[in-house]
Design goal:
4-stranded mixed sheet; about 20% strand; 10 helices; alpha/beta; 13 strands
């Protein structure tokens, strides 16, 4: 367990998982849902520890550049001398993007001893994780050692990627989590796996709410958050709370939705770290996620993007 003396340090959000490069035909952008979350937290000067692994290669240098740009500690950043930095091939198509997630990447081999050593230097308030970095045994085992070493709140951002996780991994992750965030497609997958509800079945709102409550009970969750894109989000609490957030300012325009879910997660975790009221936290998470849709990529290229949000939320 983390030493009691660590309580003197600032509470930190530990973010576990992939940092990678999205490889488009014309450009490369640094991504990975966990790294997007960590960078957004860092931009708001919220203490965070990114636990990941990169290769000793050109893409690794690019990823490290983002650590520097966002003034992030490299305490949880591991360097792999054999495996390459994570890379995703992205093909732009008229109907959207096609992603090819390459196998056997550095983030599949996150070392447990190094990860535990890094986490021992902070006081975890929350630990964020997803499913992609669990596809290989090494990183999967490291994650569960980290989870077992702290009583911090466990936030699961499901982030299902085709062919990268199965029902067993998802069930294990849900059982390990306290708070779970899913989008509508992921919620349908959960309904199909655990309640045998055909994704093509049209459910009424009461039926959806009942099924969400059943998920809360099945996995002993504190909360389930369902994001609905431009339509907001719905929060289900184990205490019976139901918070529907619909009144979100629309972004002036939408360039792409890449990173919107990660932005939501980051602001939700930021709100918890700063003890914002839950309804305010959810409203801010929705608004900021919408704003990310008005920039190209998962995080802004201009750090100045965050200034107005910092000023607005500092004011209350």
């Amino acid at each position: 367990m983390i030493p009691a003396s660590a309580g003197e340090r600032p509470l930190t959000t530990v973010v576990f998982g992939e940092a990678l490069v999205d490889d488009f035909v014309t450009e490369q952008l640094v991504g990975g849902a966990p790294f997007n979350v960590a960078r957004n937290l860092a931009a708001f000067m919220s203490p965070q520890l990114m636990v990941t692994r990169i290769g000793d290669d050109r893409n690794g240098v690019v990823v490290r550049g983002e650590f520097e740009r966002f003034a992030m500690s490299e305490s949880g950043l591991q360097l792999d001398r054999m495996e390459e930095t994570g890379r995703v091939l992205v093909e732009r198509r008229p109907g959207g993007h096609r992603f090819v997630i390459l196998p056997k990447q550095a983030y599949d081999f996150i070392d447990p001893a190094l990860a535990l050593e890094a986490m021992a230097k902070v006081t975890p308030a929350s630990i964020y994780f997803g499913t992609l970095a669990q596809r290989a045994a090494r990183s999967h085992d490291t994650l569960y050692k980290l989870l077992g070493a702290t009583g911090a709140t466990r936030f699961l951002d499901l982030n299902l990627r085709e062919g990268q996780s199965d029902r067993g991994c998802v069930a294990e992750s849900l059982n390990a989590a306290n708070i779970v965030k899913v989008n509508e497609e992921e919620l349908q997958a959960l309904f199909s796996w655990f309640f045998q509800i055909d994704p093509k079945t049209t459910l009424g709102s009461d039926e959806v709410h009942a099924a969400c409550r059943a998920l809360l009970d099945m996995f002993a969750l504190d909360a389930l958050i369902v994001t609905l894109g431009h339509r907001g989000s719905v929060y289900f609490g184990a205490d019976g709370a139901l918070i529907v957030n619909r009144d979100n300012p629309a972004p002036p325009f939408v360039i792409d939705t890449v990173g919107a879910g990660d932005a939501f997660s980051a602001i939700f975790l930021l709100g918890r770290a700063r003890s914002w009221p839950l309804e305010q936290t959810l409203a801010r998470a929705n608004e900021f996620a919408g704003a990310i849709c008005a920039v190209s990529g998962a995080v802004p290229r201009d750090i100045g993007f965050y200034d107005k949000w910092v000023a607005r939320w500092r004011a209350g």
